[in-house]
Specification:
globular; 6 helices; mainly alpha; Cytochrome Bc1 Complex, Chain D, domain 2
């Protein structure tokens, strides 16, 4: 009798573990990594040149959908292009993502420090990628090529690029869509 009870109890625990693992798997599957096929198509329509440049100069590190590869950040999708840099130290400190603290740190950051300035508009993204990307070869593309990539990135994030695209004349007026 006791053996039968123990067997039933163990079977219930095993079934419960499978259910929990299945739910966790579904939860993880629901987290979108990178841009969706629809977002990529929209971005290609708005900036075919940017899509081509992204594929050749950015996708090796950031992934074909901008999902990030390894420790490289995602540049397309729901978590992409955050206003403030993410804490990459893995800190559990709740204040680590505080926008006010991050802004103070950015203002006090010495020249050449590894972090980045805030991403609020297209100009901020251009300033960052045109001086630091591709990694180790920052500035290796022409300015118009960097602008094409910015057009692609923002279109994939949901921006509707203005007629003629995003460039130096209007970049500060184009906010980064937040999802």
């Amino acid at each position: 009798m006791l053996a039968r009870f123990a067997h039933r109890r163990m079977s219930s625990l095993v079934r419960g573990a499978f259910v929990v693992c299945g739910l966790l798997g579904l939860g993880c599957a629901a987290i979108q990594l990178g841009a969706t096929p629809v977002e990529l198509a929209r971005a290609r329509d708005q900036s075919d040149r940017g899509a081509t440049l992204f594929a050749s100069a950015c996708a090796n590190c950031h992934g074909q959908r901008g999902e990030g590869v390894g420790s490289v950040p995602d540049v397309l999708g729901p978590r992409a292009l955050p206003e403030y840099p993410r804490d990459s130290s893995g800190s559990n400190d709740p204040s680590a993502g505080d926008p006010q603290l991050l802004q103070l740190e950015a203002q006090a950051r010495p020249a050449g420090a590894a972090s980045r300035d805030c991403f609020r508009n297209a100009q901020d993204v251009f300033n960052f990628i045109s001086t630091r990307m591709p990694k180790g070869r920052g500035g290796s593309l022409k300015p118009e090529e960097y602008w094409a990539v910015v057009n692609f990135l923002l279109a994939a994030q949901g921006a509707t690029n203005p007629v003629g695209g995003i460039g130096p004349a209007n970049a500060t007026t184009i906010p980064i869509p937040r999802r």
